[in-house]
C-alpha cells in the first residue's frame, strides 16, 4: 500500500500489505498538528495524485506513455521528484514485474515500462542534487551477483543524493570478492544488497560472511529488493537487516 499525506500531498511511505500497489492517504507526522488546527484536510490534491497514479498504472500495463507527459503532469501537481520515483514509479515497477512473472503482461510490455522509468530516472539524475559523488560513502549499495536489474539502485542513487547522504551504488551484480574490496577501500557504515530472486540469497550470505571478517566491518548489512518486498526473509543468524523501503536506511547511518 502506498500512503500520501492528505494535508501536504507528499509521499509518506509504503506499508503492508507490500504486494498491494494501490494508493491511500494518511497524515505525515510533521503535518499532524496542522491538520488538527485546520480541521478536515482538503482531499482534492490527494484525489488528483491518486488519479495520476492510476493513469500511470494504465500506461504501465499497456506499455505506453511518454517521459515528458509524465514529468509535465507531475510538475503540474507539484509532486517532488523523489515522491514521483518512490510513490508512483517504484511500486508500479514492482507491480509490472509481478504481472510479467505471472504471465499477465508480455515481456515486451515489461521492457517498455522499465525503459520509460529508466529514462525518467536518468532525467532526474541529471538535475542538481544535494550530495555529489563522494570518495567516502556512508553506504554502499550493490546488486547481488547475477541480479542485472539496475533501476532500483538508480532510484536509490537519486534518493541518497537528494537526502544529502554520500553513497555509492554499483550495478549490475558483483561477486563477493568485489564487494569485499569496495568495503575495505571505503569503510562505509552500511553495505546493502538488492536481490531480485530468492536464489540470489546464498551469494549475498557468502559476501556478508566475508564483510564481517574485515578489520573494520560495516556496522550494518542490509537486504532489500524485489524478493524481499515479496516476502524473502533471511535467517536471523546471517546478521542481515531487512529493508523494504529506502527511507529505512538513513536513520542507520547517523
Which stretches of 5+ consecutive residues score pLDDT under 50?
none
Count of the domains: 2
The N- to C-terminal Cα distance equals 28 Å
Mean pLDDT: 85
Order of helices and strands: EEEHHHHHEHEHEHEHE
Oligomer: single chain
Look at the helices and sheets and give the structural class. alpha/beta
Radius of gyration: 19 Å
Count of helix runs: 9
The main β sheet shows up as:
5 strands, parallel
Number of strands: 8
Tell me the fraction of residues in β-strands, as a range.
15-25%
Range of helix content: 40-55%
* Shape verdict: globular
Question: Within the largest sheet, what's the order of strands?
Answer: 5-4-6-7-8
Summarize the structure.
With 254 residues, this protein is of the alpha/beta class. Helix content is 45%, strand content 15%.
Can you tell me about this structure?
- It is built from 9 helices and 8 strands.
- A 5-stranded parallel sheet has the order 5-4-6-7-8, sandwiched between helices.
- Helix 4 (81-101) packs antiparallel against helix 5 and helix 5 packs parallel to helix 6 (151-162).
- It is α/β, with parallel strands linked by helices.
- The protein folds into 2 domains: 2-125, no CATH class; 139-253, Rossmann fold, CATH 3.40.50.280.
- The radius of gyration is 19 Å and the shape is globular.
